[in-house]
Amino acid sequence: TIKACLFDLDGVIVDTAKYHFLAWKRLADELGINFTEDDNEKLKGVSRVRSLEIILELGGKTLSEEDFNSFMTKKNDWYLEYVDQMKEDEILPGVLDFLKALKAEGVKVALGSASKNAMRILNLLNITDYFDAIIDGTSVSAAKPDPEVFLKGAEATGTTPAECVVFEDAEAGVEAAINGGMRVVGIGEEEALGKANIVVPGFANFSVEDLKKALA
Ligand code: G6P
Ligand code: MG
After folding, report:
1. From the annotation, which residues make up the binding site for substrate?
2. Does ipTM come in above 0.85?
3. What is the pTM of this model?
């Protein structure tokens, strides 16, 4: 049985990767580091701190702690400039219907995201009320693939890991779910997410009924 569905945010509910890219790109330009969309793939599901470390590694640069922190703040300010323009129509296709169907069936819904901006984004998209629990970058200490974020989601929804299904677009997120003893639906391409129980391109042609059948 499925008692709770735990959703990653970035890349699952909304495509914020493009805004993360624009902000990191602007920062990398300022640092004189070449940063491409391919490089951006490495930052999916990765924390803000680790993301900047990866970019610095790409450019073979180091920063003082003070500069590191001020560049992180700068990136986030730029990121939020883009994010604050977002409207409900940026919710990825099929997501809203999927959330509504889960509610109708009494399945609990939780967010499991590494982002410290998660609440702000859910509010902008007007979907905060669909979530029974919100676990985000402000409430976890260990990054995916550590299962902490999803285990807290299970706890907050009063369910066991075996009763949960996780939706993830990042490899580290799929691993986090598996490490937590949960079933997982990969959102994206089979190639990167092969460890998931099933992989679908998105929610556009995927219903709660399809989910049940696939996991039966
Ligand atoms: C998600 C995204 C990452 C992002 C991280 C932290 O996991 O996939 O690209 O770096 O959240 O987000 P934040 O909004 O706190 O910078
Ligand atoms: Mg993601």
Report:
1. 8-10, 24, 43-48, 51, 75, 113-117, 144
2. yes
3. 0.95
